[in-house]
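Please go through this chain and its backbone structure tokens and walk me through the local backbone shapes. Keep your notes short.
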Amino acid sequence: MIFKSRISLLKSLGCRYSSLYASENVFSEKNIKKTVAIFSGKKPIKMIPHEPIKRAGVLIPLCFVDGKVALLYTLRAANLKSHRGQVSFPGGMQDITDKNLEETALRETEEELGIPKKDIEVWGSGNVIVTKRETSVTPVIGRIKGDFRVDKLKVNISEVEDVFIVNLEDLCSPQNLGYTQFRGAFASMPVFNGGKIRIWGLTALLTYRFLDSLLPHQGYSHSIKYLNPVQVYNNKTNIR
């Protein structure tokens, strides 16, 4: 009897855990408002001491695929001048014709993937992340309307080499979460291993901040450790 009770409890907890990622919860009006409030309230991140010289907008695209909520990622083409071969969200540099960074993100998404802005429900924007490349990046949250299919996209192969999705359960599974710290870096960065391609760098940081806003703690908990950089002076190891 006790054994059966434990099985029932585990099943109940599993159902509750899975329901956290269900579309009716994620896409509810209450959760959308909560997500935008938390995401927009996160502090800006500056990786350089001076003001950036470029501005960019990227879309964090939610989609509904095979009954599950997922995030869409792109792999940048190998021939691009910057960030070639890296996993990213659709987006790019602000154009003089763009009224704001939200418009930049939507325009670039249509140019890269052929998704018109009328097919994207914009939730809101977050605070900037200023990169070491002197670019201020504004993230825009948007849901691609309807049932999504990657094979229906009109991918611009001159900019995008591949497109893939990762559902929320895989993104948030503890076994797929990690972190990395570059040599001499001022902070550790999140890493996601649950998708077709490892997600790291700025895209992982945006994913981390977004999931932390979208889901409750029991649905997403990503522990990131920081190790003091090690310096070697005259064959002696010093920790800063």
Q: What stands out?
A: The two ends are 57 Å apart (CA to CA).
